[in-house]
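Appendix B. Extra example for self-study. Work through it before the problem class; the solution is given directly after the inputs so you can check yourself.
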Amino acid sequence: EAGVAQSPRYKIIEKRQSVAFWCNPISGHATLYWYQQILGQGPKLLIQFQNNGVVDDSQLPKDRFSAERLKGVDSTLKIQPAKLEDSAVYLCASSSFREPQHFGDGTRLSIL
Amino acid sequence: AQTVTQSQPEMSVQEAETVTLSCTYDTSENNYYLFWYKQPPSRQMILVIRQEAYKQQNATENRFSVNFQKAAKSFSLKISDSQLGDTAMYFCAFMKPNTGNQFYFGTGTSLTVIP
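Solution. Structure tokens for the complete assembly:
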């Protein structure tokens, strides 16, 4: 089966600019997750979708981050405006009920 | 809230030797799943092994096995016959299926296999 697809693989922007990441989960997976992973740390959940509804967005900095999964399939995560501390790898994962998460390759974001 | 603790930030092992990575968790749930994920320097997270809490038998996957102690809330990973390709970050994870598959990750253990 095809894995979780993410794009772009790398992104470099200046602070205060905006950026968007895209994720296409494994077909049939109802749950989609976005994580932020800072170098040397574990993944931090930003938002979790169940189909097109939000299960958990308690750690999403809502003043600058937004995410959507309009049709319950692919998803976009946006940062506007970016700050230096947003430099990280953004991971997307998906899962079906009672099954482990499958991760994409991630997007490495560098803020100048 | 669920917490997952990995008390060993870094470990090393000689090639072909055995190493055990520790993980403890705190939960009041009775139905849950536990996982070990591996993240090599190329950064994609890969599932290594899974354990359902209702199963008493410890899971094994080739050279990887777990020691699941439900009462002690402990879930350690044993890697036998360590290989250079095992060098990676290892994350322990806890999942609650009844609340929409919520996952909780530990802070990770960086394992280096020494030739």
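Self-check: Chain B has a mean pLDDT of 93. If your reasoning did not lead you there, revisit section 3.
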